[in-house]
Amino acid sequence: MPGSNMKVLHYRCTFIVIFSAIFLNHLQVNGQNKCDKCNIPIASGGCKCDNNCDCRPGLGGNVCDKCNIAVNDGGCKCDNTCSCIIACQRPNNWCTNATATFVSVDCDGDGVLDIICYDGNKKRWMRRTSDQCQEKTSVPDSACPAVFMKLPPPARAGIVNLALSSRTIVASSQTTGSRPSYAADGNNGTLFHSAYPEDVGSGSESDFNPYVGLELSQLSTISKIVILNRPGFEYRLQNAEVRVGTNAITNRSSTVDGNAVVWKQTATQGSVIEISLNPPVVGRWVSLQNLNPTTWLTQEGYPYVLNFLEIQVLGVPLAVTVVSNDVATRPWSVNPDTASNYISAGAQWIWATSASAIYDAPVSGFIFQKNVTVTSDTPCNLALIADDQCDVQVNDMYCGSIVHGWGDQLLQTVAVDLLPGENVISLRCVNQPLDDPLNRGNNPAGIIAALRTASGDVLAQTDSTWVVAGAIKNICEVRKCPLGKSCRPCSGRCL
Ligand SMILES: [Ca+2]
Ligand SMILES: [Ca+2]
Ligand SMILES: [Ca+2]
Asked: Structural domain tally of the chain?
């Protein structure tokens, strides 16, 4: 069992740090002192500095040169005196009992490996770099979240952690070595950490309202969000907000505000923050933003930083709803000749959220998607009936539009060319307002489509395997019209 002494290898990268960090925490740039160089552009003779006004790594001739440079390049991770932090080594015969489990993992989030041992009797031994590899026993879960803190599994069948399949994860800033993806990589040991003055890996040192935004792989119904906060730094999160919606989030902070707040922090939270959404919320984008009231650079401890180990977004992807298996169904009563194209393809009427859309649906828009893989260039025709209107895109390229097509109207098609490999067919469809607002009645919504090669082979047809990839908030976004027609700007209707 653990117990043998191991010398902690501490390697001095450098000479002695001369000045006290206490007095130099407030960097000055306008006096005749060594802090003059700090945070002035390199081209003007300046550099980024640490607490001691020593130039940050990689800029030559200073005590911290080795810090945060790749080990293969002669560098190391450093502590705050620029001493290299060496991974905790496993002593001989340490954690070799048959019932013991040995793990080498970064428990404390400093980027250097620690070692953990635990057995079936809940006994624990730990050596962390932040403890100079001194052995500790009977440690709490929070001492090594990567090993001991397990987020709760999804509560119900069918509920999945949507964050793990995020299409993109963006962050307002991050420190050296941290990545936006650490926010939702399924690893409770990888820490997302926003930038601060001593470590501006990417972004701004004055990122006072840092955020992370996740784009889910498709529009989803979200019932719960779980945040695994950074142990020991829970206090940083103040007035934090979680937002969910369909507005895309970029590195411009204003884009976060486009989605609705679903949770606002009102009190200091523990390490695990569970946010139940009841009723569930539909969205494609999820953001977590720290809105700590401290917004000055030199505040000790940088309370405005956003740092957490993992975020879970629990819910279900929004599948399409089949509103009818019968192309000739009312209210659309499709021309029999036109209908045969859909019947032979086995296509179904679909809409986004409710089977009752066949009777009545809100004025709304959705993006329906299906991936189709071909082995060579494949010219195709997409036959489509749309209540009321769809733009057709393949791999984000606009190909044409369909308006209506039911009753006695003839078959309408859009030519699309598929490329070798996987192609994303997107139908951006809206249910328009009723033509005659005075003649109020129900407003059905639905689409039916079949994709065929030039030789007539069916490559895809609308059915329950399509997904709702997004929502269209402004129905005027879909306003392209069939060939030979023009669009009235922002009316959603064709002249
Ligand atoms: Ca460590
Ligand atoms: Ca993580
Ligand atoms: Ca309609």
From this structure: 3
How deeply is 116 buried, as exposed, middle or buried, from its count of CB atoms within 10 A (0-12, 13-18, 19+)?
A: buried
Q: Which of 67, 64, 25, 39 is nearest to 47 (CA)?
A: 39
User: Are 243 and 280 contained in the same domain?
Assistant: yes
Full residue range of the structural domain in which residue 380 is found: 321-477
CB within 8 Å of 157: residues ≥ 6 apart: none
What does the angle CA 407 – CA 413 – CA 417 come to, to the nearest 5 degrees? 160
Q: What is the DSSP letter of 21?
A: H
| pLDDT higher than threshold 70 for residue 39 | no
pLDDT digits 0-9 by tens, 249-277: 988 888 999 999 999 999 988 889 999 99
Domain annotation covers residue 289:
yes
Same-domain check for residues 352 and 423: yes
Residue 8 pLDDT more than 60? no
pLDDT, tens digit, 9 for 90 and up, residues 313-347 = 999 888 789 999 999 999 999 999 999 999 999 99
Is pLDDT at 156 greater than 70 in this prediction?
no
Q: Is the peptide bond before 2 cis (omega within 30 degrees of 0)?
A: no
> How far apart, in whole angstroms, are the C-alpha atoms of residue 167 and residue 216?
6
Q: For residue 495, give the DSSP letter.
A: -
- Which-ligand-closest: CA of 230? 2
CA–centroid distance, residue 229 to ligand 2 (Å): 10
Residue 4 lies in a domain: no
Q: How many CB atoms lie within 10 A of CB 322?
A: 17
Enumerate residues with CB within 5 Å of ligand 2 (an ion): 182, 185, 187, 190, 310
